[in-house]
Each structure stands twice: as structure tokens, then as C-alpha cells.
Amino acid sequence: MKQKAVALKYEATQQHAPKVTAKGDGKTAQKIIEIAKENNIPIKEDKDLVEMLSKIELDKEVPQEMYKAVAEVFSFIYKISNEKR
Length: 85
Prior knowledge:
85 residues, alpha+beta, two-stranded antiparallel ribbon, 15% strand, globular
């Protein structure tokens, strides 16, 4: 099974919901992960969520029915970020 990756961006003051900013599989997924690591962006592995998010068009907001799952990811990221401080 090919590796897949999806990148999300969320700016609470400018957006209603997170947006899909990059997605891909194989070499593209590897590049997304590499860029995240180079920029100290936390990575959360969740194959089911990546599968769902990969169906969203680039630069589109995550649909409301996915908010709970995405909120769990952002909660994980904030926790990891605060632990590093």
C-alpha cells in the first residue's frame, strides 16, 4: 500500500475551518512529510483520516462532518507543541 499524506492549515482568525493545503501519495507524500519535518511541523499518523481528507480538493475547507476527527489531530499537535516549549 502506498504511503499517503495530507497537510492542513488553520488560522483561527482568518478561516472557519482547516484547509487542505497539500496531498498526495508515494513520492509526493514523502515530500510533504519531509517538508513538515524540516519545518518542525508535528506529524500525526492516521490512515483513515488521511484517506478521508485526501478526497477534499486542495485549498478547500474540511467539511463540518469531519470537524471532530480533525479537532483531535489539532489537539494532538497543540499538546506536542506545548511539550516542546
